[in-house]
Amino acid sequence: MKKRRWKSKESVRILRVFPRRTNATPIDELAHIGSPDLFSNHLEIDRVHISVTFSWDMPEAERLYKEWSAIAPVEIGGPATGARGEDFTPGKYLKQGYVITSRGCPNRCWFCGVWRREGGAVRELPVTEGWNILDDNLLACSGIHIKKVFAMLSKQKHRLFFTGGLEAARLKPWHVEELVRLKPAEIFFAYDTPDDREPLYEAGKLLKAAGFNSCNPLRAYVLIGYPGDTFEKAENRLFDCLNAGFTPMAMLYRDKTGERDPAWVKFAWPWARPAIIHSKQRERKNSEKKMGIELSEEAGEKKG
């Protein structure tokens, strides 16, 4: 009788399937985008994991589930499913270099699914190697954990990024000192609600005093287009961001269906391109300067 050979956990070949490609999607041989292709039946795989980040991709994930089930057992996972995240494995569901060292956020922002999925407390994970931090709220972690992360980053031979975003209200002088030492290529903060305005300005003061500026490398995500928002309000927040010392990155609000108003898409497009953004800033300053001169001249004429 032929004996069956059981595979160890390490030898199980898992194909990771993604509904769409992003900058963070892995590119190794066991990462695949979309439907099976002509070579899929010849892949030596034991399981298929469909990883879904965005809720509006769930219908596509369900379709892919049916297609890939003909090849191997399939599971659907990822943030879009609402499942709580596990310990982070570098290179598995995110491209090598992207790293998550904690999950969860104590803030309960109405538009964010992190606290609903991960809970209202931060969970600190083992610190693995990487150079692009994607934590939900790194600065909400303990000082010991943050220092471990900074120490890990100091050993990297790549340009450093804080793409996940840092919370301005939690930024402390010692964080700034560490960031100066690390010299990151890009640091993202956020301006999502009116309550973020004052902390963002204070963070800008700390960072600018340390030598950072809006051109290199300070950025800020700015949520726009949510229910009740207007183009005027959104533009004011975006210029507010510039005045605080950060180059804004417009983040267009989407509901679970992923629907977007074409007018908002058109409005958001230039606010995702730094060169256009700083050109807008110069135009606004020149316009304000010209208006100030005209008002001054008008006042002088009236006085005369």
Oligomer: single chain
What is the annotated CATH architecture of the largest domain? Answer: Alpha-Beta Horseshoe
Number of domains: 2
The CATH topology name of the largest domain reads: pyruvate-formate lyase- activating enzyme
- Chain-averaged pLDDT: 89
| Uncertain segments | 1-8
Q: How many strands, which pairing sense, and closed or not: the largest β-sheet?
A: 4 strands, parallel
CATH level-1 class of the largest domain: Alpha Beta
Order of helical and strand elements: EEEHEEEHEEHEHEHEHEHH
| C-alpha end-to-end distance | 111 Å
Radius of gyration: 23 Å
The computed structural class is: alpha/beta
The total count of helices amounts to 8
Question: How many runs of DSSP E, i.e. beta strands?
Answer: 12
Order of strands across the biggest sheet? 2-1-3-4
Helices and strands, with pairings:
Elements: E1 14-18, E2 31-33, E3 47-51, H1 58-68, E4 74-77, E5 98-99, E6 102-103, H2 114-118, E7 123-124, E8 132-133, H3 143-154, E9 161-162, H4 173-182, E10 186-191, H5 197-209, E11 218-224, H6 231-243, E12 247-252, H7 262-268, H8 274-303
Parallel strand pairs: 1-2, 1-3, 3-4, 5-8, 9-10, 10-11, 11-12
Antiparallel strand pairs: 6-7
